């Protein structure tokens, strides 16, 4: 029961083409900068939007091929929104019960336990911490017993340390539930931690599909890996120029010649080459 | 960034690592690459790429040293700074640049016309095609 995505559609005036098959239980990350259409593609998979050409199918069931269309309520998708979209007037347990199918195979307590919320079943969203709200949103999506889990930047509202911690528990949950998942992210670390496949979207509508290593660690020069970043700072110094580049949530500082710096400007997209043998690693915990 | 047009002379591979040998202006160059071997063969044209900050300079160097890229040259000029200096060394029709500390420039008494050797570790040498 693979997720088959062979379609194209217009997003913000650009034609975006998608061609990938995601095996059951795998996670596909939609990766790219803000505004390229990641959330729009996720909404298309959920059934909120239609495709222009091609086909979306899950297993033998066609979800959209231009003629046949399976509405959102019949697609069995669990959706975790960026802002969690929890019901403020329902306890955690009630939210899960509300999301469950008519004949659930698992109890509300099971999902609370699985997401580490066993002690918070009677808590309302406003009584929970940011991390607990995120887990409740995930538990609610899981409690609907979906075939496909859609995660729209599920950790972006959280601070860095909590995000890292929840990445671990999310990775564990995905492995445990074996749910086919599509994740929207602009966090490189999150993509490598959670996804087996990545569809990279660029601002011009171009897409690249493959494993995170194939798509995000391109070798522009043999023996060196390239990451894509954006220039944050150009500070002329004696002899050389100091350049700070943002890559995902992190920054890299390096020295380049004034001649090379003259061809750059703040905000410009650049490829950062990493010499594999010279990179140093330091364990942080 | 320094770039040298060269010809591939040999490619030795081991899982995850390969050692590439190349020749330019009669000098042998070596690059240690991490990852799968590139689809190259002896005789192919390659470009050797290395940063100015990865170039070391030696004067009156005697004995053996593990650095594989060791090229004789004569300094054409030095752009001095308080902490760092940029040394220009002609190679063929082009100029190689080395950024070293100004303290080293003073210690080695580097100046235009001085014969030196410039050195680059094989794992700091990138290869583009």
Can you tell me about this structure?
The complex is a heterodimer of chains A (285) and B (129). In chain A, the strands form 3 sheets. Chain A has a 6-stranded mixed sheet, with helices on both faces. A 4-stranded antiparallel sheet of chain A has the order 2-1-4-5, with no helix packed on it. In chain A, strands 13-12-11-14 form a 4-stranded antiparallel sheet. Chain A is globular. By secondary structure, chain A is α/β, with parallel strands linked by helices. Chain A has 2 domains: 3-215, Rossmann fold (3-Layer(aba) Sandwich); 219-275, OB fold (Dihydrolipoamide Acetyltransferase, E2P) (Beta Barrel). Chain A is 25% helix and 33% strand. Chain B has a 5-stranded antiparallel sheet with strand order 3-2-1-4-11, with no helix packed on it. A 3-stranded antiparallel sheet of chain B has the order 5-10-6, with no helix packed on it. In chain B, strands 7-8-9 form a 3-stranded antiparallel sheet. The two termini of chain B are 16 Å apart. Chain B has 129 residues and is mainly beta. In chain B, a hairpin with a 2-residue loop joins strand 1 (2-14) and strand 2. Chain B has one domain (2-128): OB fold (Dihydrolipoamide Acetyltransferase, E2P) (Beta Barrel). Chain B is 5% helix and 56% strand. At the A-B interface, strand 13 of A face strand 3, strand 8 and strand 11 of B.
